Amino acid sequence: MQIKKFLPVLAAMAMMPGIGLAQDADTTPVNADIGFIFTTFMFLVTGFLVFWMAAGFAMLEAGLVRSKNVTMQLTKNISLFSLAAIFYYLIGYNLMYPGDGWTIEGIIGAFGTTGLEPVGLDGAEPDLTYASVGSDFFFQLMFCATTASIVSGTLAERIKLWPFLLFVIALTAFIYPIQASWKWGGGFLAPGVEGQTDFLDFAGSTVVHSVGGWAALTGALILGPRIGKYAKDGNIIPMPGSNLALATLGTFILWMGWFGFNGGSQLYMDTAGNVADISRIFANTNTAAAGGAVTALILTQLLYKKPDLTMVLNGALAGLVSITAEPLTPSLGAATLIGAVGGVIVVFAVPFLDKLKIDDVVGAIPVHLFAGIWGTIAVVFTNSDASLGVQLYSILVVGIFTVVASGLVWFILKAVMGIRVSEEAESVGLDISELGMEAYPEFSKG
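Request: output the structure for the sequence above.
Response:
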Protein backbone atom coordinates (compact mmCIF):
# COMPACT_ATOMS: atom_id res chain seq x y z
CA MET A 1 0.00 0.00 0.00
CA GLN A 2 2.83 2.42 0.79
CA ILE A 3 4.30 1.98 -2.69
CA LYS A 4 1.16 3.46 -4.26
CA LYS A 5 1.86 6.78 -2.58
CA PHE A 6 5.12 7.08 -4.48
CA LEU A 7 3.88 5.97 -7.89
CA PRO A 8 3.13 9.57 -9.11
CA VAL A 9 6.61 10.69 -8.09
CA LEU A 10 8.27 7.69 -9.77
CA ALA A 11 6.25 8.32 -12.91
CA ALA A 12 7.31 11.96 -12.99
CA MET A 13 10.95 10.97 -12.55
CA ALA A 14 10.64 8.48 -15.38
CA MET A 15 9.40 11.23 -17.66
CA MET A 16 12.27 13.65 -16.94
CA PRO A 17 14.48 12.52 -19.86
CA GLY A 18 11.61 13.32 -22.21
CA ILE A 19 11.83 17.06 -21.49
CA GLY A 20 14.19 17.60 -24.41
CA LEU A 21 12.12 15.71 -27.02
CA ALA A 22 11.28 18.92 -28.92
CA GLN A 23 14.49 18.22 -30.88
CA ASP A 24 14.42 14.71 -32.33
CA ALA A 25 18.17 14.13 -32.43
CA ASP A 26 19.07 16.14 -29.35
CA THR A 27 22.17 14.71 -27.69
CA THR A 28 22.44 17.49 -25.09
CA PRO A 29 22.81 16.07 -21.58
CA VAL A 30 19.56 16.03 -19.66
CA ASN A 31 21.00 18.26 -16.93
CA ALA A 32 21.73 21.06 -19.41
CA ASP A 33 18.19 20.80 -20.75
CA ILE A 34 16.75 21.04 -17.25
CA GLY A 35 19.04 23.99 -16.48
CA PHE A 36 17.67 25.77 -19.56
CA ILE A 37 14.13 25.14 -18.34
CA PHE A 38 14.67 26.29 -14.78
CA THR A 39 16.68 29.40 -15.69
CA THR A 40 14.06 30.38 -18.26
CA PHE A 41 11.34 29.83 -15.67
CA MET A 42 13.29 31.97 -13.18
CA PHE A 43 13.54 34.85 -15.66
CA LEU A 44 9.80 34.70 -16.34
CA VAL A 45 8.80 34.62 -12.67
CA THR A 46 11.28 37.25 -11.50
CA GLY A 47 10.49 39.30 -14.58
CA PHE A 48 6.81 39.59 -13.77
CA LEU A 49 7.76 40.44 -10.18
CA VAL A 50 9.76 43.37 -11.55
CA PHE A 51 6.84 44.22 -13.83
CA TRP A 52 4.69 44.49 -10.70
CA MET A 53 7.03 47.27 -9.58
CA ALA A 54 5.41 49.41 -12.29
CA ALA A 55 2.22 49.22 -10.25
CA GLY A 56 4.25 50.08 -7.15
CA PHE A 57 5.63 53.24 -8.74
CA ALA A 58 2.15 54.21 -9.94
CA MET A 59 0.60 53.80 -6.48
CA LEU A 60 3.51 55.49 -4.70
CA GLU A 61 3.35 58.51 -6.98
CA ALA A 62 -0.45 58.66 -6.93
CA GLY A 63 -0.30 58.78 -3.16
CA LEU A 64 2.46 61.39 -2.87
CA VAL A 65 1.13 63.96 -5.36
CA ARG A 66 -1.81 66.25 -4.65
CA SER A 67 -5.26 65.00 -5.64
CA LYS A 68 -5.47 67.37 -8.62
CA ASN A 69 -2.52 65.59 -10.28
CA VAL A 70 -3.22 61.91 -9.55
CA THR A 71 -4.71 60.98 -12.92
CA MET A 72 -1.71 62.49 -14.68
CA GLN A 73 0.72 60.33 -12.69
CA LEU A 74 -1.28 57.21 -13.43
CA THR A 75 -1.39 58.11 -17.13
CA LYS A 76 2.35 58.72 -17.20
CA ASN A 77 3.14 55.42 -15.53
CA ILE A 78 1.12 53.15 -17.77
CA SER A 79 2.25 55.10 -20.85
CA LEU A 80 5.95 55.06 -19.97
CA PHE A 81 5.92 51.31 -19.40
CA SER A 82 4.17 50.69 -22.71
CA LEU A 83 6.58 52.95 -24.59
CA ALA A 84 9.56 51.29 -22.91
CA ALA A 85 8.27 47.87 -23.99
CA ILE A 86 8.07 48.96 -27.64
CA PHE A 87 11.23 51.03 -27.96
CA TYR A 88 13.43 48.68 -25.96
CA TYR A 89 12.35 46.01 -28.46
CA LEU A 90 12.86 48.24 -31.52
CA ILE A 91 16.21 49.72 -30.51
CA GLY A 92 17.34 49.36 -26.91
CA TYR A 93 17.80 45.61 -26.43
CA ASN A 94 20.26 45.18 -29.27
CA LEU A 95 22.10 48.37 -28.39
CA MET A 96 22.50 46.96 -24.89
CA TYR A 97 23.78 43.63 -26.20
CA PRO A 98 25.70 44.55 -29.37
CA GLY A 99 27.05 41.06 -29.97
CA ASP A 100 30.55 41.16 -31.40
CA GLY A 101 30.97 44.82 -30.60
CA TRP A 102 30.09 48.37 -31.47
CA THR A 103 30.35 48.61 -35.24
CA ILE A 104 28.41 50.69 -37.75
CA GLU A 105 26.89 47.52 -39.17
CA GLY A 106 25.99 46.27 -35.70
CA ILE A 107 24.35 49.54 -34.67
CA ILE A 108 22.31 49.79 -37.87
CA GLY A 109 21.38 46.13 -37.61
CA ALA A 110 20.19 46.60 -34.05
CA PHE A 111 17.00 48.38 -35.06
CA GLY A 112 14.01 46.11 -34.67
CA THR A 113 15.95 42.85 -34.94
CA THR A 114 15.07 41.32 -31.57
CA GLY A 115 13.68 37.90 -32.38
CA LEU A 116 12.32 35.04 -30.30
CA GLU A 117 12.85 31.31 -30.75
CA PRO A 118 10.41 29.56 -33.10
CA VAL A 119 7.32 27.98 -31.60
CA GLY A 120 8.27 24.80 -29.75
CA LEU A 121 11.94 25.38 -30.63
CA ASP A 122 11.13 23.84 -34.02
CA GLY A 123 14.39 23.73 -35.96
CA ALA A 124 16.19 25.89 -33.42
CA GLU A 125 19.46 25.17 -31.69
CA PRO A 126 19.06 26.97 -28.37
CA ASP A 127 21.88 27.60 -25.95
CA LEU A 128 20.84 25.04 -23.37
CA THR A 129 23.46 26.30 -20.96
CA TYR A 130 21.45 29.49 -20.43
CA ALA A 131 17.81 30.45 -21.06
CA SER A 132 15.40 31.31 -23.84
CA VAL A 133 15.83 34.61 -25.69
CA GLY A 134 12.24 35.53 -24.91
CA SER A 135 12.73 35.18 -21.16
CA ASP A 136 15.97 37.14 -21.20
CA PHE A 137 14.44 39.96 -23.26
CA PHE A 138 11.39 40.05 -20.98
CA PHE A 139 13.52 40.23 -17.84
CA GLN A 140 15.87 42.93 -19.18
CA LEU A 141 12.93 45.02 -20.42
CA MET A 142 11.61 45.30 -16.88
CA PHE A 143 14.86 46.91 -15.73
CA CYS A 144 14.72 49.41 -18.57
CA ALA A 145 11.14 50.37 -17.71
CA THR A 146 12.06 50.77 -14.05
CA THR A 147 14.65 53.39 -14.98
CA ALA A 148 11.96 55.48 -16.68
CA SER A 149 9.58 55.10 -13.74
CA ILE A 150 12.12 56.76 -11.46
CA VAL A 151 11.99 59.98 -13.46
CA SER A 152 8.22 60.29 -13.38
CA GLY A 153 7.74 61.08 -9.70
CA THR A 154 10.43 63.73 -9.41
CA LEU A 155 8.96 65.88 -12.19
CA ALA A 156 5.35 65.48 -11.13
CA GLU A 157 2.75 68.26 -10.98
CA ARG A 158 4.33 70.65 -13.49
CA ILE A 159 5.62 68.80 -16.58
CA LYS A 160 3.65 68.38 -19.80
CA LEU A 161 2.65 64.86 -20.72
CA TRP A 162 3.97 64.54 -24.27
CA PRO A 163 7.43 66.05 -23.76
CA PHE A 164 7.84 63.71 -20.79
CA LEU A 165 6.86 60.70 -22.91
CA LEU A 166 9.26 61.73 -25.67
CA PHE A 167 12.02 61.84 -23.06
CA VAL A 168 11.01 58.33 -21.97
CA ILE A 169 11.51 57.14 -25.55
CA ALA A 170 15.01 58.64 -25.64
CA LEU A 171 15.83 57.18 -22.22
CA THR A 172 14.64 53.64 -22.91
CA ALA A 173 15.76 53.39 -26.54
CA PHE A 174 19.19 55.00 -26.22
CA ILE A 175 20.42 56.44 -22.91
CA TYR A 176 19.76 53.48 -20.62
CA PRO A 177 20.75 50.73 -23.11
CA ILE A 178 24.01 52.41 -24.14
CA GLN A 179 25.37 52.81 -20.63
CA ALA A 180 24.00 49.41 -19.56
CA SER A 181 25.93 47.81 -22.42
CA TRP A 182 29.17 49.05 -20.84
CA LYS A 183 28.51 46.87 -17.80
CA TRP A 184 26.12 44.08 -18.83
CA GLY A 185 26.69 43.97 -22.59
CA GLY A 186 30.41 43.17 -22.51
CA GLY A 187 31.55 46.80 -22.65
CA PHE A 188 34.50 48.51 -21.03
CA LEU A 189 33.06 48.30 -17.50
CA ALA A 190 32.33 44.57 -17.71
CA PRO A 191 34.29 42.32 -15.32
CA GLY A 192 36.13 39.18 -16.27
CA VAL A 193 37.57 40.42 -19.55
CA GLU A 194 41.28 41.18 -19.77
CA GLY A 195 42.00 44.87 -20.18
CA GLN A 196 38.55 45.95 -19.00
CA THR A 197 37.47 47.61 -15.78
CA ASP A 198 36.03 45.21 -13.19
CA PHE A 199 33.03 47.28 -12.16
CA LEU A 200 30.72 45.36 -9.81
CA ASP A 201 27.04 46.26 -9.85
CA PHE A 202 25.06 43.06 -9.35
CA ALA A 203 21.53 44.24 -10.14
CA GLY A 204 21.91 47.92 -10.94
CA SER A 205 22.34 50.39 -8.07
CA THR A 206 24.23 52.46 -10.64
CA VAL A 207 23.21 51.00 -14.00
CA VAL A 208 19.47 51.29 -13.27
CA HIS A 209 18.77 53.39 -10.20
CA SER A 210 21.38 56.12 -10.36
CA VAL A 211 20.73 56.51 -14.10
CA GLY A 212 17.07 57.17 -13.36
CA GLY A 213 18.15 59.48 -10.55
CA TRP A 214 20.59 61.44 -12.72
CA ALA A 215 17.96 61.83 -15.45
CA ALA A 216 15.42 62.99 -12.85
CA LEU A 217 17.86 65.46 -11.28
CA THR A 218 18.76 66.93 -14.67
CA GLY A 219 15.09 67.31 -15.54
CA ALA A 220 14.27 68.90 -12.19
CA LEU A 221 17.03 71.51 -12.60
CA ILE A 222 15.84 72.45 -16.09
CA LEU A 223 12.13 72.30 -15.24
CA GLY A 224 12.29 74.25 -11.98
CA PRO A 225 10.23 73.83 -8.78
CA ARG A 226 6.47 73.86 -8.43
CA ILE A 227 4.76 77.22 -7.98
CA GLY A 228 4.67 78.15 -4.31
CA LYS A 229 7.01 75.42 -3.13
CA TYR A 230 9.75 77.82 -2.06
CA ALA A 231 8.71 81.16 -0.54
CA LYS A 232 10.70 84.34 -1.10
CA ASP A 233 11.62 84.48 2.57
CA GLY A 234 13.33 81.09 2.25
CA ASN A 235 10.58 79.03 3.85
CA ILE A 236 9.69 75.67 2.34
CA ILE A 237 5.95 75.23 1.86
CA PRO A 238 4.74 71.68 2.52
CA MET A 239 2.61 70.15 -0.23
CA PRO A 240 1.27 66.93 1.30
CA GLY A 241 0.32 63.99 -0.87
CA SER A 242 -3.26 63.00 -1.49
CA ASN A 243 -3.32 59.44 -0.23
CA LEU A 244 -0.73 57.92 2.10
CA ALA A 245 -2.55 54.59 2.00
CA LEU A 246 -1.79 54.35 -1.72
CA ALA A 247 1.80 55.44 -1.13
CA THR A 248 2.23 52.72 1.49
CA LEU A 249 0.67 50.12 -0.80
CA GLY A 250 3.03 51.22 -3.57
CA THR A 251 6.02 50.82 -1.28
CA PHE A 252 5.03 47.27 -0.32
CA ILE A 253 4.52 46.41 -4.00
CA LEU A 254 7.97 47.76 -4.83
CA TRP A 255 9.46 45.83 -1.88
CA MET A 256 7.87 42.65 -3.22
CA GLY A 257 9.00 43.31 -6.79
CA TRP A 258 12.56 43.84 -5.62
CA PHE A 259 12.88 40.12 -4.83
CA GLY A 260 12.59 39.55 -8.57
CA PHE A 261 14.83 42.51 -9.34
CA ASN A 262 17.74 41.23 -7.27
CA GLY A 263 16.97 37.50 -7.23
CA GLY A 264 16.66 37.21 -11.00
CA SER A 265 19.98 38.99 -11.42
CA GLN A 266 21.69 35.80 -10.26
CA LEU A 267 21.01 34.91 -13.94
CA TYR A 268 21.18 31.15 -13.46
CA MET A 269 18.97 28.63 -11.69
CA ASP A 270 20.64 25.47 -12.97
CA THR A 271 22.48 24.25 -9.87
CA ALA A 272 21.83 23.83 -6.16
CA GLY A 273 24.44 26.51 -5.53
CA ASN A 274 22.61 29.04 -7.68
CA VAL A 275 19.30 28.29 -5.98
CA ALA A 276 20.94 28.72 -2.57
CA ASP A 277 22.41 32.04 -3.71
CA ILE A 278 19.00 33.25 -4.89
CA SER A 279 17.63 32.42 -1.45
CA ARG A 280 20.46 34.38 0.15
CA ILE A 281 19.74 37.34 -2.15
CA PHE A 282 16.06 37.33 -1.17
CA ALA A 283 16.94 37.36 2.53
CA ASN A 284 19.50 40.17 2.17
CA THR A 285 17.17 42.24 0.01
CA ASN A 286 14.43 41.97 2.58
CA THR A 287 16.56 42.88 5.59
CA ALA A 288 18.15 45.85 3.82
CA ALA A 289 14.69 47.31 3.22
CA ALA A 290 13.81 46.73 6.86
CA GLY A 291 17.03 48.40 7.97
CA GLY A 292 16.28 51.48 5.87
CA ALA A 293 12.69 51.74 7.11
CA VAL A 294 13.52 51.34 10.80
CA THR A 295 16.40 53.81 10.60
CA ALA A 296 14.17 56.44 8.98
CA LEU A 297 11.50 55.76 11.60
CA ILE A 298 13.91 56.33 14.49
CA LEU A 299 15.67 59.32 12.93
CA THR A 300 12.47 61.21 12.15
CA GLN A 301 11.26 60.60 15.72
CA LEU A 302 14.52 62.05 17.06
CA LEU A 303 14.73 64.97 14.62
CA TYR A 304 11.08 65.99 14.31
CA LYS A 305 9.61 64.56 17.56
CA LYS A 306 7.16 62.53 15.47
CA PRO A 307 7.75 59.74 12.93
CA ASP A 308 7.30 60.75 9.28
CA LEU A 309 5.58 58.03 7.25
CA THR A 310 6.81 59.34 3.90
CA MET A 311 10.38 59.22 5.17
CA VAL A 312 9.87 55.67 6.45
CA LEU A 313 8.51 54.59 3.05
CA ASN A 314 11.43 56.15 1.21
CA GLY A 315 13.81 54.75 3.84
CA ALA A 316 12.67 51.23 2.92
CA LEU A 317 13.13 51.98 -0.79
CA ALA A 318 16.56 53.49 -0.17
CA GLY A 319 17.55 50.35 1.69
CA LEU A 320 16.48 48.30 -1.31
CA VAL A 321 18.44 50.49 -3.74
CA SER A 322 21.49 50.35 -1.46
CA ILE A 323 21.65 46.54 -1.43
CA THR A 324 21.00 46.18 -5.16
CA ALA A 325 24.65 46.60 -6.17
CA GLU A 326 25.66 43.56 -4.08
CA PRO A 327 22.86 41.51 -2.51
CA LEU A 328 24.74 38.19 -2.51
CA THR A 329 27.96 38.52 -0.52
CA PRO A 330 26.84 40.42 2.64
CA SER A 331 25.74 38.65 5.79
CA LEU A 332 22.26 39.44 7.06
CA GLY A 333 23.76 41.86 9.57
CA ALA A 334 25.85 43.64 6.95
CA ALA A 335 22.89 43.86 4.58
CA THR A 336 20.81 45.42 7.35
CA LEU A 337 23.50 48.04 7.99
CA ILE A 338 23.88 48.81 4.28
CA GLY A 339 20.14 49.38 4.07
CA ALA A 340 20.19 51.43 7.28
CA VAL A 341 22.68 53.86 5.75
CA GLY A 342 20.23 54.25 2.86
CA GLY A 343 17.60 55.28 5.41
CA VAL A 344 19.97 57.87 6.87
CA ILE A 345 20.67 59.24 3.40
CA VAL A 346 16.97 59.79 2.69
CA VAL A 347 16.25 61.57 5.98
CA PHE A 348 19.03 64.10 5.43
CA ALA A 349 19.00 64.33 1.61
CA VAL A 350 15.33 65.31 1.25
CA PRO A 351 15.69 68.58 3.25
CA PHE A 352 19.10 69.16 1.66
CA LEU A 353 17.55 69.21 -1.81
CA ASP A 354 14.87 71.59 -0.55
CA LYS A 355 17.57 73.97 0.68
CA LEU A 356 18.99 73.93 -2.83
CA LYS A 357 15.44 74.55 -4.17
CA ILE A 358 15.49 71.32 -6.14
CA ASP A 359 11.88 70.17 -6.10
CA ASP A 360 11.62 66.37 -6.03
CA VAL A 361 7.96 65.57 -5.41
CA VAL A 362 8.35 61.94 -4.29
CA GLY A 363 11.96 61.87 -3.08
CA ALA A 364 13.25 59.79 -5.98
CA ILE A 365 16.62 61.56 -6.19
CA PRO A 366 17.67 60.70 -2.60
CA VAL A 367 16.30 57.16 -2.94
CA HIS A 368 17.60 56.19 -6.36
CA LEU A 369 20.57 58.49 -7.00
CA PHE A 370 22.12 59.11 -3.58
CA ALA A 371 21.37 55.64 -2.18
CA GLY A 372 22.39 54.14 -5.53
CA ILE A 373 25.80 55.77 -5.27
CA TRP A 374 26.14 54.61 -1.66
CA GLY A 375 25.16 51.04 -2.56
CA THR A 376 27.72 50.92 -5.36
CA ILE A 377 30.46 52.09 -3.01
CA ALA A 378 29.30 49.68 -0.27
CA VAL A 379 30.17 46.70 -2.50
CA VAL A 380 33.81 47.06 -1.42
CA PHE A 381 32.88 46.26 2.19
CA THR A 382 31.54 42.77 1.47
CA ASN A 383 33.04 41.71 -1.86
CA SER A 384 36.82 41.32 -1.93
CA ASP A 385 36.85 41.49 -5.73
CA ALA A 386 35.62 45.10 -5.67
CA SER A 387 37.94 48.09 -5.98
CA LEU A 388 36.90 51.45 -4.53
CA GLY A 389 38.68 53.30 -7.31
CA VAL A 390 36.92 51.29 -10.00
CA GLN A 391 33.53 51.70 -8.33
CA LEU A 392 33.97 55.48 -8.07
CA TYR A 393 35.26 55.73 -11.64
CA SER A 394 32.27 53.80 -12.96
CA ILE A 395 29.80 55.91 -10.98
CA LEU A 396 31.41 59.02 -12.45
CA VAL A 397 31.43 57.74 -16.03
CA VAL A 398 27.79 56.65 -15.94
CA GLY A 399 26.75 59.85 -14.18
CA ILE A 400 28.47 62.20 -16.63
CA PHE A 401 27.08 60.35 -19.63
CA THR A 402 23.53 60.31 -18.25
CA VAL A 403 23.55 63.98 -17.24
CA VAL A 404 24.93 65.13 -20.60
CA ALA A 405 22.63 62.91 -22.67
CA SER A 406 19.54 63.68 -20.55
CA GLY A 407 20.33 67.39 -20.47
CA LEU A 408 20.62 67.46 -24.24
CA VAL A 409 17.24 65.78 -24.68
CA TRP A 410 15.55 67.99 -22.06
CA PHE A 411 16.94 71.20 -23.63
CA ILE A 412 15.84 70.14 -27.12
CA LEU A 413 12.34 69.37 -25.88
CA LYS A 414 12.20 72.67 -24.00
CA ALA A 415 13.27 74.63 -27.07
CA VAL A 416 11.03 72.82 -29.55
CA MET A 417 7.76 72.32 -27.65
CA GLY A 418 8.22 73.46 -24.07
CA ILE A 419 8.25 71.05 -21.15
CA ARG A 420 6.36 72.94 -18.47
CA VAL A 421 2.64 73.64 -18.22
CA SER A 422 1.38 77.20 -17.78
CA GLU A 423 0.96 78.73 -14.31
CA GLU A 424 -2.80 78.58 -14.71
CA ALA A 425 -2.71 74.89 -15.68
CA GLU A 426 -0.43 74.08 -12.75
CA SER A 427 -2.71 75.88 -10.33
CA VAL A 428 -5.81 74.12 -11.63
CA GLY A 429 -4.03 70.80 -11.69
CA LEU A 430 -2.75 68.65 -14.53
CA ASP A 431 -5.69 66.27 -14.32
CA ILE A 432 -8.11 68.92 -15.58
CA SER A 433 -5.76 71.09 -17.63
CA GLU A 434 -3.91 68.30 -19.47
CA LEU A 435 -6.35 65.38 -19.37
CA GLY A 436 -9.82 66.74 -18.63
CA MET A 437 -10.56 64.14 -15.97
CA GLU A 438 -10.04 63.77 -12.23
CA ALA A 439 -9.10 60.84 -10.02
CA TYR A 440 -11.49 61.99 -7.29
CA PRO A 441 -14.28 63.90 -9.10
CA GLU A 442 -16.75 63.69 -6.21
CA PHE A 443 -14.40 65.75 -4.06
CA SER A 444 -13.73 68.51 -6.59
CA LYS A 445 -14.69 72.04 -5.68
CA GLY A 446 -17.34 74.08 -7.38
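Confidence is low (pLDDT under 50) at residues 1-30.
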